[in-house]
Write a structure and sequence with these properties.
The chain has 2 domains: 2-116 and 265-300, Rossmann fold (3-Layer(aba) Sandwich); 120-262, NAD(P)-binding Rossmann-like Domain (Rossmann fold, 3-Layer(aba) Sandwich), CATH 3.40.50. The longest helix is centred in the last third of the chain and has 16 residues, at 264-279. It has helices spanning 2-10, 33-44, 60-69, 94-99, 118-127, 145-157, 169-177, 196-199, 225-228, 248-255, 264-279, 285-300, and strands at 19-25, 48-54, 74-77, 91-92, 104-108, 111-115, 138-141, 162-166, 188-192, 205-208, 236-239, 259-261. The chain has 12 helices and 12 strands. It is of the alpha/beta class. The chain binds NADP nicotinamide-adenine-dinucleotide phosphate. NADP nicotinamide-adenine-dinucleotide phosphate is lined by residues 118, 121, 142-147, 166-168, 171, 209-212, 214, 240-242, 263, 266-267, 270.
């Protein structure tokens, strides 16, 4: 009975005026966004609900028209829609344009507008460390989708140079080329993994954006302990992976006494930024954090 009452208390009250938010993807069942967003919505007492919608790649345009027709207020996007949605938008923010991917939509009179809150999410825990970013040269491991948000975030922080390490020379060159129309194009350099050992000792911020260390291969680290020993004093090791936490990479970095960050705060803060955009009210980030961490604990069991 007690458990039942608690569940009811946490349910949003749905009536004829309830406004819809949601996340679309394929698959979308694994998404942690509904748990985080509905916790914040319940705490704020606003008349919204946030739902997961499985939308196939070939149904994206139809789904967006349908969402507009029924008055959906805001949408998050995950794989495989983040790039595919761009031609369907009436407006895109410069940061989403630079990243080349959109994770948040809102409706305007002319159609759907899009932005990307991943860079904002990525830099939120870094800003909290209060460093002088004009002295920090980050080194980013991997050159996929998440690395793009990390590059945009590091540029936003004001880092004077940004290094990206990847395993495929052609992909690296394409990655570099894709930033040609941005103000920070000259601050970006790309390198193959064999150059990593020469660069680690000069970086104050080492970011893993590869999936190396994710479940089930949790014993793997993208960088060996011997290389991590070369990180300078006061360096930060940041892994975008949030499960497991800490990853092997962060465990090895902790042994070197450097500051470590996992990917959970990025996930929370990109969600909080989207919710702020839709609701235009202060967001209870701690409520979202608790909801996410509880969910990750449940999943980990
Ligand atoms: P992605 O687009 O597939 O990019 C992955 C990158 O890692 C690619 O550059 C890939 O290289 C490289 N890579 C893959 N396996 C590797 C290996 N064994 N050794 C070296 N490099 C390897 O994926 P993504 O969307 O960027 O996501 C990457 C990671 O970030 C995932 O773990 C994801 O969960 C995490 N992430 C976290 C958040 C958050 O909010 N915390 C947000 C987004 C992503 P190639 O291109 O050569 O294959």
């Amino acid at each position: 009975m007690v458990a039942f009452s608690i569940i009811l208390m946490n349910q949003p009250f749905i009536n004829g005026k309830t406004k819809l938010l949601g996340v679309i993807g394929d698959p979308v069942e694994h998404s942690l966004s509904p748990v985080m967003h509905n916790a914040a919505i319940a705490h704020l007492g606003v008349n919204y609900i946030y739902l997961p919608f499985p939308v196939r790649q070939d149904a994206l345009a139809t789904a967006l028209d349908g969402f507009a027709a029924i008055g959906v207020q805001g949408i998050n996007l995950t794989i495989p829609h983040k790039q595919a949605v761009i031609p369907l938008l009436s407006e895109i923010t410069p940061v989403a344009q630079a990243i080349g991917a959109v994770n948040t939509l809102w409706r305007t009179e002319t159609g759907w507008s899009g932005t990307n809150t991943d860079a904002e999410g990525f830099i939120a825990p870094l800003k909290a460390l209060n460093r002088d970013w004009s002295q920090v040269i980050p080194l980013i491991l991997g050159n996929g989708g998440a690395a793009r948000a990390v590059v945009a975030g590091c540029a936003e922080l004001g880092c004077p140079e940004i290094g990206v390490v990847g395993r495929d020379r052609q992909k690296l060159d394409k990655f570099k080329q894709s930033w040609q129309n941005t103000p920070f194009k000259d601050r970006l350099s790309v390198h193959t993994w064999d150059k990593l050992s020469e660069m680690v000792s000069n970086t104050q911020l080492l970011v893993n954006t590869t999936p190396v260390g994710m479940s089930p291969k949790i014993e793997q680290s993208p960088v060996e302990a011997a290389l991590l020993q070369q990180l300078p004093q006061g360096a930060i090791a940041y892994d975008l992976i949030y499960t497991p936490s800490p990853t092997r990479f962060l465990q090895l970095a902790q042994q070197q006494g450097v500051t470590t960050l996992d990917g959970s705060e990025m996930l929370i803060q990109q969600g909080a930024a989207a919710l702020h955009l839709w609701l235009d009210t202060p967001i209870p980030v701690e409520i979202m954090r608790q909801a996410l961490l509880d969910q990750l604990r449940i999943k980990g069991k």
